[in-house]
Design brief:
InterPro entries: AMP-bd_C, AMP-bd_C_sf, AMP-binding_CS, AMP-dep_synth/lig_dom, ANL_N_sf. With about 525 residues, the chain is α/β, with parallel strands linked by helices. It is built from 18 helices and 29 strands. The chain has a nine-stranded mixed beta sheet, sandwiched between helices. α1 packs across α2, α2 crosses α3 and α4 crosses α5.
Length: about 525
């Protein structure tokens, strides 16, 4: 193999600034390499072996990056945990991933402590950045450990959790390759090469979203392995994005359409006052981008906006700026190594231009950890689906027309109604409930709940507030309904199946797409 991969690059040029924290602190590659090596030595002393897992509940920045780099050279699975989750939700992931060590930042101390208790993980295997009650300082793990390259290095992997329509998230787990970590990292750079991204300096990748998202980890990690500097944002802000792009001469990033919407709403003089001439590959996905929004972004930034459609599970399409301008609205053509198949309800292929369920060829096979039924359910030979509906044009370009029936995408985050419904149904004044997404110009979708009140309960603003507040400590705030309406009786089929489309349809009338 060649000379890419973080560890090789860091040894060749330890002074290269590999990461910039949200507070502006710069981290040379040599420092990150030494820290990652110490973590490996420390965790091996605790007994961690290849195939074990570690979890990190950490904000964007170098600390999480070091864990990622440690796991990927020691043959471990690294699971970054969503910091919006509550203690029980965190505990479920720590336990389900069979984490042999759990790292948390003091910013999330309260929920980290609850999560560790819920998971039943030994106190000696919980490590804190800052003060977290009952957790050992990370320094106890790393102090006095050598910063030298660990022996017997072998490639690890990330294992992200993706929610299912049944509510409980599942870990997407791929078999470990046994490759040399740098060779594995060099293979990973194929992802960004699909978009034409080039390795080496000067290149900088702006991390705009939380690192617990699969795509954020994959794109940032790949950029790092290509020798790009990672510039981390703590909380996304439109003008701060422009400032960082100018300050660090950012060449590439990963964005969602909500970011575009916010950027376009900045005053014209603000937008014009930043030098964005360094931008080359601004890649977006995660939710449909309204055609007018994308046109405006292309007019402003030029032909540097690439789109793709993929899933945590694998497979995917790419639309270059030129592709998209010829076919506005497309999410692209299958990327090398992936194939698309559109089928009807009987799983038979449909003709060109006819909508059906979108299946993608996986490339590397995966399993949903601990759920063989779910793994098998979404498969068709060596294709899999996330349940989206779309069609192919005569040139093989994919257009999406609907999404898996219930999933809500708000600000690029996937939210599953079944999980919210389950928690709302617990409320004594709720007889029945349906949760779905309604259109929102800024977020893409907002969460709407329709409630059938229990006998004797008085519908109104007071009851709505009481129901929402009952979710405190049980569901992350981002999953709370922003609107509740009441209904006398929920529309259901004789077999009890909820006719959610009936409830949802009025809110989407007049929209050019059902997403």
């Amino acid at each position: 193999m060649g000379s890419l991969g973080f560890w090789r690059l860091a040894q060749a040029d330890p002074a290269w600034i590999a990461a910039v924290d949200p507070d502006g602190t710069e981290h040379p590659a040599g420092e990150l390499l030494a820290r990652a090596n110490r973590i490996v030595h420390g965790l091996r002393e605790l007994g961690l072996r290849p195939g074990d897992g570690i979890c990190g509940l950490l904000p964007n920045g170098a600390d999480g990056l070091v864990l990622y780099l440690a796991a990927l050279q020691a043959g471990w699975y690294y699971t970054p945990v969503n910091w919006h989750l509550t203690g029980p939700e965190i505990g479920y992931i720590v336990a389900d991933s069979e984490a042999a060590a759990f790292f948390a930042h003091e910013r999330y101390a309260a929920e980290a402590v609850r999560g560790a208790q819920e998971a039943g993980i030994a106190a000696g295997r919980c490590f804190a950045y800052g003060e977290v009650e009952g957790f050992r300082p990370v320094a106890e793990l790393t102090d006095g450990r050598p910063d030298t390259t660990p022996p017997d290095r072998t490639a690890g992997a990330t294992m992200h959790y993706t929610s299912g329509t049944t509510g409980r998230p599942k870990g997407v787990r791929r078999a470990l390759t046994g490759l040399d970590p740098d060779d594995s990292a060099e293979l990973m750079t194929g992802l960004l090469r699909l978009f034409g991204v080039t390795p080496g300096r000067p290149n900088a990748h702006l991390v705009t979203s939380p690192s617990y998202h699969t795509a954020v980890t994959q794109f940032a990690g790949t950029a790092l392995h290509m020798g790009h500097t990672l510039v981390f944002m703590d909380k996304w802000d439109a003008e701060e994005t422009l400032r960082l792009c100018e300050r660090h001469r950012v060449t590439n990033s990963h964005l969602v359409p909500t970011h575009f919407k916010r950027l376009l709403s900045l005053p014209e003089e603000t937008r014009r006052s930043y030098d964005l001439s360094s931008l080359r590959w601004m890649i977006h996905a995660a939710a449909p981008c309204p055609v007018p929004v994308k046109w405006q972004m292309l007019e402003w930034w030029g032909d540097v906006i690439y789109e793709y459609y993929a899933a945590t599970e694998g497979g995917g399409t790419i639309a270059t700026p030129e592709d998209w301008k010829k076919r506005p609205g497309t999410v692209g053509k299958a990327w090398p190594g992936s194939e698309l198949l559109i089928v009807d309800d009987e799983l038979a292929p449909v003709p060109t231009g006819t909508p059906g369920t979108v299946y993608m060829k996986m490339g590397i096979s995966f399993e949903y950890k601990g759920d063989p039924e779910k793994t098998a359910a979404n498969r068709l030979r060596d294709y899999f689906t996330v349940g989206d509906i779309g069609y192919l044009d005569e040139d093989g370009f994919l257009f999406l027309c609907d999404r898996k029936a219930d999933m809500i995408i708000s600000g690029g985050a996937n939210i599953y109604p079944a999980e919210i419904e389950k928690e709302l149904m617990v409320h004594p004044k709720v007889a029945d409930v349906a949760v779905f997404g309604i259109p929102d110009d800024e977020w893409g979708e907002r969460i709407m709940a329709v409630v059938e009140p229990a006998p004797g309960a008085v519908p109104g603003q007071e009851l709505a507030a009481e129901i929402v507040l009952s979710l405190e400590g049980r569901l992350a705030h981002m999953k709370w309904p922003s609107r509740i309406e009441f209904i006398d009786e929920m529309p259901r089929e004789p077999n009890g199946k909820l006719l959610k489309r009936k409830l949802r349809a009025p809110y989407w009338e007049g929209r050019d797409r059902a997403i």
